[in-house]
C-alpha cells in the first residue's frame, strides 16, 4: 500500500538500514536519504558506502552525504548546501537512526513534524553512541528501543513509544543488535502509520533520574583485566563481539578471546593463570571465580573453537596471561 507521508531518512550502519528498508517497503515515500560520507574499510582500506547508502542506491533513492550539518563547524559550505537541500525537498517528517552527525536546532525545525529518533535503549538509560554494547557490559536484564522526538540535547528528547526485550546470558552485541534493529524497524513503521492517521504523536518527557551515558567503544577496551570478577569479564567479551573483542597477552602474543563463560576456580592461583586446558575450554583464574574460554584467535588467524585452536597451538596449565594491557 502507499502512504501520503513523506519521510527524509538519516542513518548510517546496518541498524539504520533495517529501519530504512521497513519504511520504504511499507510504502512511505522517501525523497532523500542522509548518510555519512564513504569511509575506508577492510583490508585494502578502500572507500566503502554505508549500509544505508547501499540500500538507497539499490532502490533509486536520492542520497546526500554531508560531512557536517553545522554551519559553524569545520565544513560550513557543505553544511549550508545540505541544509538548503533539506529545505528544498518537500517532506513531512525526518527519521534518524544511528546517523552519527549532530543535528543543530535549525535542522530539527525543518520538517513539519520534526525529527523522530530510533534509539537502541530504554531511555534515559544509555543515551549516547554505544547503547547496545554498554547494556550487555553492565549486565542489564533488559533493553529495548525508544522512539524519541529529537531536541538539541544528546538523546534527551520526549519519548513517543518503546518496546522492551530481555538480554539473554548468551547475547553478544551482534545478536542483540539484530533483534533490536528488527524491533526498531517495526516500531518506526507503526509510529509513521499513526502519525499519518492522526496528524500527531503524543510524547512524554524523559524522567530526570536514571540517565546514563553510553560512551563510544574504544579499541583499548579489549584488554582483559584478570583481576576483575569472571562474571564481569564474560560480559565484557560478549559486549565487545564483534568489536573490539577481548584481548590478552600470553608469552608476548596477543590472543583475542571471543567467547567465555564464568565458572568456579578449580584451585587457587594468581589471576590470569591457566589452570585447566581441554577441548571443552581453557580455564583461567580471575579476581573472583574463573573464566572458561571457548573461542580464541591468534594474530593473523581466524576465530576458532578451543578444540581447533589447540590443534595448532599449545596452551598448558601454569601459563599465565599478562596483567599488563596488550597494546
UniProtKB/TrEMBL annotation:
Keywords: Protein biosynthesis, Transferase. It comes from the Bacteria. GO terms for molecular function: methionyl-tRNA formyltransferase activity. Residues 216-313 form the Formyl transferase C-terminal domain. It catalyses: L-methionyl-tRNA(fMet) + (6R)-10-formyltetrahydrofolate = N-formyl-L-methionyl-tRNA(fMet) + (6S)-5,6,7,8-tetrahydrofolate + H(+). (6S)-5,6,7,8-tetrahydrofolate binds at residues 121-124. Its EC number is 2.1.2.9. InterPro entries: Fmt, Formyl_trans_C, Formyl_trans_C_sf, Formyl_transf_N, Formyl_transf_N_sf, Formyl_transferase-like_C_sf, GART_AS, Met-tRNA-FMT_C. SUPFAM superfamilies: FMT C-terminal domain-like, Formyltransferase. The keyword Transmembrane does not apply. Residues 7-192 form the Formyl transferase N-terminal domain. NCBIfam families: fmt. Belongs to the Fmt family. Attaches a formyl group to the free amino group of methionyl-tRNA(fMet). The formyl group appears to play a dual role in the initiator identity of N-formylmethionyl-tRNA by promoting its recognition by IF2 and preventing the misappropriation of this tRNA by the elongation apparatus. This is Methionyl-tRNA formyltransferase. The lineage of its organism: Bacteria, Pseudomonadati, Pseudomonadota, Betaproteobacteria, Burkholderiales. The gene is fmt.
Amino acid at each position: 500500500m502507499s502512504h501520503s507521508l513523506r519521510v527524509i531518512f538519516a542513518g548510517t550502519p546496518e541498524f539504520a538500514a533495517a529501519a530504512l528498508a521497513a519504511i520504504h517497503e511499507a510504502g512511505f515515500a522517501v525523497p532523500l536519504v542522509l548518510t555519512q560520507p564513504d569511509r575506508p574499510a577492510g583490508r585494502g582500506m578502500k572507500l566503502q558506502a554505508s549500509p544505508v547508502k547501499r540500500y538507497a542506491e539499490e532502490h533509486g533513492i536520492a542520497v546526500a552525504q554531508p560531512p557536517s550539518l553545522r554551519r559553524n563547524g569545520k565544513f560550513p559550505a557543505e553544511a549550508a548546501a545540505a541544509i538548503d537541500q533539506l529545505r528544498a525537498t518537500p517532506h513531512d517528517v525526518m527519521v534518524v537512526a544511528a546517523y552519527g552527525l549532530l543535528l543543530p536546532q535549525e535542522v530539527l525545525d525543518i520538517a513539519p513534524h520534526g525529527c523522530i529518533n530510533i534509539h537502541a535503549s530504554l531511555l534515559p538509560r544509555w543515551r549516547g553512541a554505544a547503547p547496545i554494547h554498554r547494556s550487555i557490559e553492565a549486565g542489564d536484564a533488559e533493553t529495548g528501543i525508544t522512539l524519541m522526538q529529537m531536541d538539541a540535547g544528546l538523546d534527551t528528547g520526549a519519548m513517543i513509544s518503546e518496546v522492551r526485550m530481555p538480554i539473554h546470558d548468551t547475547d553478544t552485541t551482534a545478536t542483540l543488535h539484530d533483534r533490536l534493529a528488527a524491533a526498531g524497524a517495526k516500531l518506526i513503521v507503526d509510529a509513521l502509520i499513526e502519525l499519518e492517521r492522526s496528524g500527531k504523536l503524543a510524547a512524554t518527557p524523559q524522567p530526570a533520574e536514571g540517565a546514563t551515558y553510553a560512551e563510544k567503544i574504544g579499541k583499548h577496551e579489549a584488554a582483559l583485566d584478570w583481576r576483575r570478577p569472571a562474571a564481569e569479564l564474560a560480559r565484557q567479551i560478549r559486549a565487545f563481539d564483534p568489536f573490539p573483542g577481548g584481548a590478552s597477552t600470553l608469552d608476548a602474543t596477543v590472543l583475542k578471546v571471543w567467547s567465555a563463560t564464568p565458572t568456579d576456580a578449580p584451585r587457587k592461583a594468581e589471576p590470569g593463570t591457566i589452570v585447566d586446558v581441554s577441548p571443552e575450554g581453557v580455564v583461567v583464574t580471575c579476581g573472583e571465580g574463573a573464566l572458561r574460554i571457548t573461542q580464541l584467535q591468534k594474530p593473523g588467524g581466524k576465530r576458532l573453537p578451543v578444540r581447533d585452536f589447540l590443534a595448532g597451538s599449545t596452551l598448558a596449565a601454569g601459563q599465565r596471561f599478562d596483567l599488563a594491557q596488550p597494546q
